[in-house]
């Protein structure tokens, strides 16, 4: 899988380099600051592709003594680095656009510039769709993120083509820096979103979608011995997850029986997360008389209180560090 991921990201790198050269050729031909903005954003595709290649290589390395959870978090560094580069490019685009508002250059060969940008846009469209689909199929958040960035480039380039057509047909050259400002703002937003995602992952912000998925899996295959689940925490390392939680079991189970229950949880969740590896660290809590009210073990030999009803597992009672009273 590593070789396939590297081939995909290297293809992205080569194509992005060729398209960047073509866009700069379009800028030198037309002197359009809007085309320059598009070319500057494409530089980020090249830099991000190079960084993504290294992150994919590093992610594939096995766990070791210094990295007991593996090297998957480097992918979030890759996303953050790409976001920072995009943000810087957006700032440069805005500065250049402001200069052109006051000192507008004469535009040349706008029709030829339109054809160049149109060709690069179509090429980027196919590349972006290929990367997004490949990233979801493998799965790889690095490839998916790279594809999503290129698709953003496609949308901005499509808007640029429309603007260049208007300029070419009407002669309203002041639209050139205006379009560049709009593109700069959109690029800044994209950079911010990528950096936000990177920081959230590096700080182990809980992904509620993953929590909900784990809760759904455990609820659907709930065993009578699993009295409650609480203090659940989820950490993501690339495409893999580390989950620790507390599970309340009947206090009289033997150690081997408790181990079998924990192993069943791990096997069950990993079966449903077929594209990822889920590592569990489970702390077992012994039941207490207050648990009898919602314990479903109808053949319990030590029940102190009658069964009142099942408690549905939700975020509200699975995430806090307390039994379900």
TrEMBL record:
Q: Where are the transmembrane segments?
A: 40-58, 79-102, 114-132, 153-172
Per the record's keyword annotation, is Transmembrane helix included, yes or no?
Answer: yes
| Topological category with respect to the lipid bilayer | Multi-pass membrane protein
Q: Where in the cell is it found?
A: Membrane
Q: Which SUPFAM superfamilies match?
A: Cation efflux protein cytoplasmic domain-like, Cation efflux protein transmembrane domain-like
List residues of the Cation efflux protein transmembrane domain: 9-203
Write the record's keywords in alphabetical order, separated by commas: Membrane, Transmembrane, Transmembrane helix, Transport
| Annotated coiled-coil segments of the chain | none
Residues covered by the Cation efflux protein cytoplasmic domain: 210-287
Which InterPro entries does the entry mention? Cation_efflux, Cation_efflux_CTD, Cation_efflux_CTD_sf, Cation_efflux_TM, Cation_efflux_TMD_sf, CDF_Transporter
Respond yes or no to whether keyword Nucleotide-binding is given for this record. Answer: no
Q: Which family does it belong to?
A: Belongs to the cation diffusion facilitator (CDF) transporter (TC 2.A.4) family.
Would you tell me the protein name for this molecule? Cation diffusion facilitator family transporter
Organism lineage reads as: Bacteria, Pseudomonadati, Bacteroidota, Chitinophagia, Chitinophagales
